[in-house]
Amino acid sequence: MKTYPIALELTVWEDLGLNQYEVTIDEASKISIKRTDDVLRTRELTGNEVSTMIAAIESLKVPVSEESKGGESIKPSSSYELIVESAHFSLEFNWEDVDTSGVNAKAFDSVAALAAVVVSLDLAH
Fold it and tell me: pTM here?
């Protein structure tokens, strides 16, 4: 099956700085890994990696979660922004590591799983 090109960008803000992953799924699929805007490495993706990415994208669900209580003061250690775009859709998700625990844990499963797949493509990580 031929799919439209898909562009995915994952940005992770951590205590140690900014990591950015740009994935393109097309005729020649590839990933670029950046740290604070410096390109560290770029490589082509294997067919299995592309299949895994497409399966993770197809399983995305919109996270509907409860607003956290005002008295909770858990400081996040990382924040995420995930953008997935193609000819027929554009999705953007923003969350913090504290959103993936507690009452909201299940709501963020699919976006956290896709982020984990993207990070796993960085073979030097």
Answer: 0.83
